[in-house]
Amino acid sequence: MDITASAMTDWASVPRHNLPAEVAGFIGREREVEEVERILPRTRLLTLTGGGGGGKTRLALRIAANVERGFPDGVRLVQLAPLTDSALVPRAVASAVGVRGTAGRPLLATLVTALASRRLLLLLDNCEHLIGACARLAETLLGACPHLRILAASRESLRVPGEVTWRVPPLEIPRQSWGNARPRWSLSRRSRPWRSSSSERVHGGRTSV
Ligand SMILES: Nc1ncnc2c1ncn2[C@@H]1O[C@H](COP(=O)(O)OP(=O)(O)O)[C@@H](O)[C@H]1O
Ligand SMILES: [Mg+2]
């Protein structure tokens, strides 16, 4: 749904969130969910970092769904993975929040106007390949929209002032979940080159400001 920045009274008709329904089971992560939900209210930009496939997106989606009711204007997911051009980042955000551009005005300026008084959580997923554009967007929006909060999932941090980064630890699948979650492939012991001592593994999230 599109609304123009000037049609602010239409905001109430915008769906509260655009989060996808979970189609696969969500395993574990109780401690991580709890910790990130504790940190989120204390910062306006929280970036979940870590390697590809480490569970950043799933964790961010789960947290966004959990906290949605705490944001009067809801939660908006901006999925950046398909974008190849940094210039399209503001457009992706505008589309996610239902804001249409105005001829002759930079879209980011229109977004600032539209979000200026919104109590909204923006979830920016897969920032890493457009990190500069995401950083500029986050800095501009957070500077102009005092009630806006951003949760980002990215292999690297945005390096924006005030950002809190939280490193997502590797997913540990609990024994009781193996029946549902065991991968259909297996490797013999001899072909596990990564077998390593527990001291080499990253434990828990680290918070750095
Ligand atoms: N808590 C979880 N429970 C079950 N599957 C998970 C969980 N976290 C991640 N996965 C699965 O692991 C894969 C990678 O997770 P994803 O969140 O996409 O990682 P990242 O965003 O860090 O690249 C996906 O197939 C995802 O569904
Ligand atoms: Mg991801």
Describe the overall structure:
This protein has 209 residues and is α/β, with parallel strands linked by helices. It has a single domain (29-171, 203-208), classed as P-loop containing nucleotide triphosphate hydrolases (Rossmann fold, 3-Layer(aba) Sandwich). It is built from six helices and eight strands, in the order βαβαβαβαβαββαβ. The chain has helices at residues 30-39, 56-67, 89-97, 107-115, 131-144, 178-181, and strands at residues 3-4, 45-49, 75-79, 99-100, 121-125, 149-153, 164-167, 207-208. The strands form two sheets. It has a six-stranded mixed β-sheet, with helices on both faces. The longest helix is centred in the middle third of the chain and has 14 residues, at 131-144. It is globular, with a radius of gyration of 19 Å. Residues 24-29, 50, 52-58, 153, 171 line the site of adenosine-5'-diphosphate.
Averaged pLDDT, please?
A: 82
The secondary-structure element order is EHEHEHEHEHEEHE
What percent of residues adopt helix (DSSP H or I)? 25-40%
Largest sheet at a glance?
6 strands, mixed
Low-confidence runs of at least 5 consecutive residues: 1-9, 181-204
Ligand inventory: adenosine-5'-diphosphate, magnesium ion
Strand tally, please? 8
Q: Span from first to last CA?
A: 36 Å
What would you call the shape? globular
CATH architecture: 3-Layer(aba) Sandwich
The CATH homologous superfamily name equals P-loop containing nucleotide triphosphate hydrolases
- Which fold does the CATH topology refer to? Rossmann fold
Summing up helix and strand content along with how strands pair, one would put the structural category as alpha/beta
Rg calculated over all Cα atoms:
19 Å
Strand coverage percent:
5-15%
Number of domains in the coordinates? 1
SS field, number of helical segments:
6
Q: How do the strands of the widest beta sheet line up side by side?
A: 3-5-6-2-7-8
